[in-house]
Amino acid sequence: FWLKIWLKAEPRGLAADAMLLFRSVLRWIGGADLGAGLLCLGVTVAAVVSAALALQRPPLKRLLAPRKFRVGRLFLHPVKGAAAVEVSELHLDRLGFQHDRRWAMLGSKNEVLTMRPCPRLVLVRPEVSGGPSTTLTLSAPGMPPLEVQAPGSDAETVAYNLWEVPGTARDCGPEAARWFSEFLGREARLAYVPAEECDVHLREPCKQAKWNDGDEAKSVYLPGSCIAFADETQGTLVSRTSLDDLNRRLPHKVAIERFRMNIILEGSAAYEEESWRSFGIGEKTFVMSRRCERCTVPLVNPETGERGSSNGEPIRELRKYRLFSMLPNGDPRHAISPIFGMKFGTSCHTGVIRVGDEVTPLTFWKRGDRTY
């Protein structure tokens, strides 16, 4: 009753325009019948609210409110543990990204040397050039530049084992061994894995017993994929917004280079990439394997080669909210290390990925799926 009187009254004061608009809407919806108008208005509001809530559910949100994802930055890591090289494009071959982690340092027992035992390794800056033969140019503080030709089939073959997945590589010769041994202050030699068909035994991550339940076809890693000195997959991806979310929690921001990723995604929400099972860039398809467990490598400052100068960050902060045990349906094989980024494989052996390319999510993890 009082609402009818208020609506029929002449509007006064600052609310005049709002009242006139409200009355017009009610009359348009319900005609002369105020009760019908209010009912229609209520139904409309309820429908709008329901639609807004439904859009927050991932499947409907992706269907009704699609967004554009793009390649924001690309990084190449020619020598495992050495400095990253930012590039405008990455080429694919049978081992993943061409020249990515194809060289590595081996210790006195042919163990792969990384930034964990050798943080100064990140100060080595590599450059790769093609031509008749692949050439690796190395520079480091206090060292003369060194050019290393990719060894041919007559080079010594070295057996090594990385993360329980064996492989073989070609020794790059005594000059490179002396250069690295002097810089690192320990015995070391440079090894190389070629992508072309040859007598080198390539590592197959799907054979890693911890992650295949005794059956290579059930491995979390893409069956049939081969790698050189990458830990377990052919590539890694993280979104810029995931890094932004982490940096908001830190007293001092960290650069993305600390995490040694290949693809930096633009346009997603923080950690949205973790909901993807596969994604496409152009006609190329990539399959997510599992999340990246973080060891002590991100503790190393890529500018100084020092570890621990950041008071345990960013690992300490990641442990507060990014432990695997905090995720639903977590696979018990994961360690207690924090997670950041995704690992992926591909069966595409040709093609190019460029900065600015559109990235399309293809399939998604379903609610209740085991989280890797």
From TrEMBL:
Chain coiled-coil ranges? none
Q: Which InterPro entries match?
A: MoCF_Sase_C, MOCOS_middle, Pyrv_Knase-like_insert_dom_sf
Q: Where are the transmembrane segments?
A: 34-55
- Alphabetical list of Pfam families matching this protein: MOSC, MOSC_N
Which residues does UniProt assign to the signal peptide?
none
Enumerate the spans annotated as MOSC domain.
210-362
Q: What are the record keywords, sorted?
A: Membrane, Transmembrane, Transmembrane helix
Q: Name one GO molecular function term.
A: molybdenum ion binding
Keyword Cell membrane set for record: no
Query: What domain of life is recorded for the organism?
Result: Eukaryota
Q: Matching PANTHER family, A to Z?
A: MITOCHONDRIAL AMIDOXIME REDUCING COMPONENT 1, MOLYBDOPTERIN COFACTOR SULFURASE MOSC
Q: What is this protein called?
A: MOSC domain-containing protein
Species whose genome carries this gene: Alexandrium monilatum
